[in-house]
Write a structure and sequence with these properties.
There is one protein chain. The protein is mainly α. The protein is 46% helix and 8% strand. The protein has a two-stranded antiparallel sheet. Strands 3-6 form a two-stranded parallel sheet. The radius of gyration is 24 Å and the shape is globular.
């Protein structure tokens, strides 16, 4: 390895051999790191490993909490051994665990440890920008989205005296829409009382753009601003996912997200998941003979967006 100046001319250091690890800040660094930790999943035959860059998540399931904790400690020891063999260091201070269960309260009698250091149980963790709570209600993430959107709307309101409607609409698309669109298949398939908070903020943003007073009806003017409600944004993504699954262009891991068989709808927790909601939405719209899957995805997206808008407001 050599260290050179940004112009690529002057050599600032002598050659150095790299026996292990990845140079930080190099162009190939991310790719080399992924190759370096690619076999982490082979450290355990029981743990399910999901990684994104240097963010690693381990999943383990069991019907008994005591056996689950004992098994977790045993499998974590294997993972630590893998880290040691590959000369990697685990930041235990940033390592924690969550427990997902349908039971109201579960007492952990056997603490989860790594190198005799007890791991902290976190009720809410951030994974790829999504706040995930142990109940999978995503209330904390919806609070986070509402806070970000409120700040953005405040900025729009302050900029209103010097900006016209097109510029305010552009601000909405740049500052508000990304928060509402990001991973909304995960958190926006939720109870109406939770999602309605984001919709109320959308209406507030529309009033700012249109110059309407507080509490003035504005929902019927979303189409004028080419603005989709949070419900339409979510449903459109669901329908696009169905299209990709039907055309076999979705990853195999994503294809398993949608459940086509009949599920007992009395279990409300299943209704609030993409596994059930996406298929139910598609079947309901397909019964209207309004869905054509034999068209390019761009045409399909345009037609579904128009269909959802017409159904919502008519």
């Amino acid at each position: 390895m050599k260290l050179i100046d940004p112009q690529g001319n002057k050599i600032l250091s002598d050659d150095r051999d790299i026996s292990c690890g990845v140079p930080q800040g190099s162009v190939l660094g991310p790719l080399l790191f992924l190759l370096y930790v690619n076999d982490l999943k082979n450290a355990s035959d029981v743990l399910r490993v999901i990684t994104f860059a240097d963010d690693t998540n381990l999943f383990l399931a069991h019907h008994n909490i005591d056996d689950l904790c004992k098994l977790a400690n045993a499998e974590l020891s294997k993972v630590i051994n893998w880290f040691g063999c590959n000369r990697l260091c685990l930041n235990i201070s940033k390592t924690s665990f969550q427990l997902y269960t349908k039971k109201a309260s579960v007492k952990i009698t056997h603490p989860i440890k790594i190198n005799d250091v007890q791991l902290k149980r976190e009720r809410v963790v951030k994974f790829l920008g999504i706040l995930v709570d142990e109940n999978l209600s995503f209330k904390e993430h919806i609070d986070f989205v509402c806070k970000k959107v409120s700040v953005a709307i405040g900025f729009m309101f302050r900029a209103k005296p010097v900006l016209e409607k097109p510029q305010l609409t552009a601000l909405y698309n740049a500052l508000v829409l990304p928060h509402l669109s990001y991973c909304n298949l995960i958190w926006a398939i939720n109870f109406p009382t939770h999602i309605n908070r984001t919709f109320l903020l959308q209406k507030r943003a529309a009033r700012v753009i249109l110059g309407l007073p507080y509490c003035h009806p504005v929902s019927h003017r979303f189409s004028e601003l080419k603005m989709s409600s949070i419900i339409d944004l979510r449903d459109l993504k669901c329908l696009l996912l169905i299209y990709k699954i039907k055309h076999n262009i979705a990853p195999n891991s994503v294809k398993k997200l949608v459940e086509w068989r009949t599920i007992n709808q009395r279990h409300h927790e299943l209704r609030q998941t993409i596994r059930v909601y996406a298929a139910k939405l598609f079947n309901n719209l397909n019964s209207l003979n309004e869905i054509n899957l034999h068209v390019p995805i761009s045409s399909y997206k345009k037609s579904m967006k128009a269909l959802l808008s017409s159904l919502h407001w008519n």
